[in-house]
Q: What sequence folds into this?
């Protein structure tokens, strides 16, 4: 069964460093998302991506964050200068595309990348 | 006030018990999602529904749009059902899902 994959599973970085989190969505999916979950808190939407551009972003997704689909398979989240408060689990998800809008599409989640900023 | 509220926050059960987890929301929605988060952190989509009822194996999800309420039921619960169950809603004119805080379920043999 196709699945969303994410690498690495755990990333430790020092404050101020740049990190890139990688995701491979399911191959025929058209919508891609990043979410984060700070330890002990609820999952929060960061950004959605469709047709090679950001479709929507949350207030969390400031200038330190960027997303890219550098080729036909990878979808990346870059944090330019990490802060302690960026420590969280980051989930990638993807959806098929049709006439329905994303909230009405089933989302398939990756296993997550645990980011620890020291 | 949270836009998505779940109850209870924590739930323990004996194997075989019938489980109900509730979700109430305050926004107009296009769909409601039930997700399962395993102890290792991974998230699995269980159901997406916008009306009525869906069933998959021992899991049943219902939604009442007028009352802005959904329930997730687990029949004949098993220790492997132990996980955090998360309700998330999607509204029209936005891509984002709004998540509840989750219900931590532990089923003991």
A:
């Amino acid at each position: 069964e196709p699945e969303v994959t994410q690498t690495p599973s755990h990333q430790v970085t020092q404050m101020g460093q740049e990190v890139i989190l990688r995701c491979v969505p399911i191959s025929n999916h058209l919508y891609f998302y990043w979410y984060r979950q700070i330890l002990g808190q609820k999952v929060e939407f960061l950004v959605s991506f469709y047709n090679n551009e950001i479709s929507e972003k949350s207030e969390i997704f400031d200038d330190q964050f960027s997303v890219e689909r550098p080729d036909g398979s990878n979808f990346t989240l870059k944090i330019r200068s990490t802060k302690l408060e960026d420590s969280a689990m980051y989930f990638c998800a993807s959806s098929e595309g049709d006439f329905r809008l994303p909230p009405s599409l089933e989302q398939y989640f990756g296993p997550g990348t645990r980011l620890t900023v020291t | 006030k949270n836009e998505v509220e779940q109850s209870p926050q924590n739930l323990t059960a004996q194997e075989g018990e019938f489980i109900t987890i509730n979700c109430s929301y305050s926004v107009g929605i296009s769909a409601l999602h039930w997700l399962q988060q395993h102890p290792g952190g991974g998230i699995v989509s269980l159901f997406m529904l916008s009306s009525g009822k869906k069933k998959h194996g021992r899991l049943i999800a219902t939604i009442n749009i007028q009352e802005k309420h959904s329930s997730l039921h687990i029949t004949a619960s098993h220790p492997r059902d132990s996980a955090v169950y998360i309700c998330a809603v999607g509204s029209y004119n936005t891509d984002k899902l709004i998540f509840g805080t989750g219900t931590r379920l532990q089923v003991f043999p």
